[in-house]
Design brief:
The protein has about 230 residues and is α/β, with parallel strands linked by helices. It has helices at about 1-20, 30-40, 55-60, 75-85, 125-140, 180-185; strands at about 45-50, 65-70, 95, 110-115, 140-150, 160-165, 170, 175, 190-200, 205-215.
């Protein structure tokens, strides 16, 4: 199972190497919504997880945010840096390769907000997602926002393809971890769960949750060990 999940890195690297704008050049709708929330609350320094090829990264930078973006695809990171350079936004964008199963290489309370579009529904086990959720909470400042999107269990692809474990299915070569509301609530430990909004994206269409969390005073503590 671990080898299957690890193989996704190579799959994404090949995909990004062959297609420089796989998801298009326009920012995603979740990025537009997140930017409005960040601006409303005066958030300036943003951590983006799973930046892909930078369509949302550059959108945030163009809108005045300072963005640190992580992705585990080296071609993706290089594409983001080159696009930022061409757009004259290099001073607003820092990109590096990182496996989110490892600790985030930032001090406590570094960021005003964290954003990710479908990173949490990639090839990550629930225990790895719990770890990542705690790490995000750690690097957020008090009252910081954490906004992420995930495909949920009412998505048309849920239950199709090859079942791997938990709610993970391999569909068209990509592993997707589908979320239930219970899983959203489980990963909200250490945060205030502000909202969960349903929306659709793409031609299928994909069905997603947009989850908005707020870091409390105490930050992320240890999660209880209970079965999902």
């Amino acid at each position: 199972m671990t080898e299957t999940l690890n193989a996704q890195q190579q799959h994404w690297e090949i995909t990004f190497s062959e297609t420089t704008d796989m998801f298009g050049t326009e920012p995603s709708e979740p990025a537009r919504v997140a930017a409005q929330s960040f601006k409303k609350e005066g958030k300036k320094k943003i951590l983006e997880l799973g930046g892909g090829q930078g369509r949302d990264t550059l959108f945030f930078a163009r809108n005045g945010f300072q963005v640190d973006v992580l992705d585990y695809s080296e071609p993706g990171v290089n594409t983001i840096l080159e696009k930022a350079r061409q757009a004259g936004l290099s001073d607003r964008v820092t990109a590096r390769r990182h496996d989110v199963r490892e600790p985030l290489a930032f001090p406590d309370e570094t960021f005003d907000a964290c954003y990710s579009h479908m990173l949490f529904c990639m090839a990550l086990t629930t225990s790895e997602l719990e770890f990542l959720s705690r790490e995000v909470c750690r690097v957020l400042r008090r009252n910081g926002l954490h906004i992420y999107t995930v495909r949920h269990t009412n998505d048309p692809h849920y239950g199709t393809g090859t079942h791997l474990s938990e709610d993970m299915y391999e569909v068209g070569g990509f592993i997707v971890h589908f979320f239930s509301m219970r899983k959203v609530e489980r990963l909200a430990k250490g945060y205030e769960l502000v909202s969960v909004d349903e929306f659709e994206e793409g031609d299928l269409p994909r069905k997603l949750f947009r989850v908005t969390l707020r870091r409390g005073k105490g930050g992320g503590g240890l999660l209880p060990n209970f079965a999902f």
